[in-house]
Design brief:
The protein is α+β, with helices and mostly antiparallel strands. It contains ten helices and 15 strands. Helix 4 packs across helix 5 and helix 9 packs parallel to helix 10. The protein is globular, with a radius of gyration of 21 Å. The relative contact order is 0.12.
């Protein structure tokens, strides 16, 4: 059986490096479910003092399988392990990451409390690999608690049409300005407009920042070749007012950690809540509405603030199927003394039984 070694991305936070190995294995196991063949003996291997994730496969990886591995968040380089002249040698396999937007976009905008972009990419991959969809679909992606847009920018690298909702005006302003400057500096053909949503009260008003962009002027002439980024300054409990029902294949969000940032719950008219459970109870019906059948919602949160069981109960009460079998329980990790992060993965019953 061919043996493959994956060199891990050096950008993992050293505070939770050991836990990142477990998370990497979990992400890879989800990818294996899309493979045609059978994998075996997935483990951490060390060669010449360098750590790799290694696995055996019952045949050589196909181009499609290499493409999928290339998208995984932790993958820095891929090798096939061979024996030649009595010695083990690593033969590199070219990654195939057809990025629509350069991956540097997620690391350019710096701010306090920013989630590691590798972790964000991992959440997006977990959502897609758990859904009824694939990278070949024209993915519509939503972050309902977008902050300053790291998940949106990661979605742009894949060529997804991305949308976000954020209640803090400063974050929305900075993200919009940043993205516009990025498109200008990288010479993407683009257009931008802003439109308002009225509400019964002045406080219910919202603003949509809309970007359309493409790699060239010629591509921009074809509507299907354009990509979109939409960012709403508004309350996420009204997601189904901003977007049509069954709009999104994937939803990914990083819940308030109860430390430095938050979102507004329905019963909090004037204050920002740092309680993720209040937000979830208020917003979940609208989030469910805008997710497509067969789509997946992935949420990260701080377990020191809220037990997983409480989130699972809210998801189930709103019609979601929570995915809890192996490897979905392998993503917990300690970020620092005040944050133990985990993810929960939930699917809207849909295309595949």
């Amino acid at each position: 059986m061919p043996t493959y070694n994956i060199l891990l991305h050096p950008g993992y936070n050293r505070v939770y490096y050991d836990q990142s190995l477990v998370m990497s294995m979990a992400e890879l196991k989800l990818a294996f479910k899309r493979f045609e063949g059978t994998s075996d003996n997935l483990k951490l291997s060390t060669l010449a003092g360098i750590n790799y994730l290694s696995f055996q496969y019952n045949k050589h990886l196909s181009d499609e399988e290499i493409n999928l591995i290339s998208q995984l968040s932790f993958v820095y380089a891929i090798f096939e392990l061979l024996e030649r002249g009595g010695e083990l040698v690593l033969v590199p396999i070219a990654k195939n990451q057809a990025l629509f937007v350069h991956s540097k976009i997620s690391s350019l905008l710096k701010y306090s409390g920013k989630t590691n972009e590798i972790f964000t990419k991992m959440m997006i991959n977990v959502a897609l690999l758990s859904s009824d969809f694939s990278f070949q679909d024209q993915i519509q992606f939503l972050d309902p608690i977008a902050g300053k847009g790291t998940s949106l920018f990661e979605g742009c690298t894949y060529g997804f049409d991305v949308s976000g909702i954020e209640i803090e005006s400063k974050s929305v302003h900075e993200s919009s300005i940043f993205f516009k400057k990025f498109l200008e500096q990288e010479k993407y053909k683009h257009q931008y407009q802003k439109r308002s949503y009225g509400g019964k009260k002045h406080a219910d008003g919202a603003v949509m920042h809309e970007f359309e962009y493409s790699l060239s002027k010629d591509e921009f002439k074809t509507e299907t070749a354009r990509k979109k980024l939409n960012l709403v300054l508004g309350n996420s409990v009204e997601a189904n007012r901003f977007f049509k029902k069954n709009s999104f294949h994937l939803m990914v969000g990083d819940l308030p950690y109860g430390i430095a940032h938050g979102n507004q719950a329905k019963n909090k008219q004037s204050n920002i809540t740092r309680n993720p459970l209040e937000l979830l109870k208020a917003a979940m019906p609208a989030w469910y509405d805008v997710l497509k059948k067969g789509g997946v919602l992935v949420l990260a949160w701080n377990k020191f603030v809220l037990p997983k069981e409480a989130i699972v109960d809210v998801l189930k009460d709103n019609g979601f199927q929570v995915l809890a079998d192996e490897p979905y329980n392998d993503f917990e990790h300690k970020v620092d003394m005040s944050i133990k992060r985990d993810i929960v993965v939930a699917k809207k019953a849909g295309l595949i039984a």
